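Worked example

This section walks through a single chain of length 145. The input is the sequence exactly as stored; nothing has been trimmed or padded.
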Amino acid sequence: MRPWLKPTIAKGWLILALCLGLLGLFSVHKTIIEVPPHPRYAEQLEAARLMERALSSIKDAKIKHGLPINQDEDPNQTGLIGEMFTTITTSSGNLEAKRTGTSPPAFAALMVRLFDQAGLTRRGHGSDRSQWVVSRLDHRNPGRL
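Given that input, the structure is written out below as tokens.
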């Protein structure tokens, strides 16, 4: 150390501060809570993968038939959000809501979680106790179909 420069912090205090900092980091590391996966995580993953395949099929069909996919209105390139005004469009709808419904594959996984929270279970076709889900769907939010 140069004799004309005097340290402003004593080495002992610096070492103590370093030790306290390391102790704090260690305690934070030990208190981090690991969240277990959702009980129906496998079904959520299955739904998300199914939606990805469906979106891919729709996009491929649009490309095959020469229908444009608007990058500005459909940034996820799903092919589900079409032209704003055409001969068959009845209203423009809310673009943000459409994007939410077409956010691949998060919405499909979310629906599995919401069905679970509602107490719905997945049963085979031959089950005695069927569970019915009624949903109002329309053309304005095609990703929710």
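What to look for: The two ends are 73 Å apart (CA to CA).
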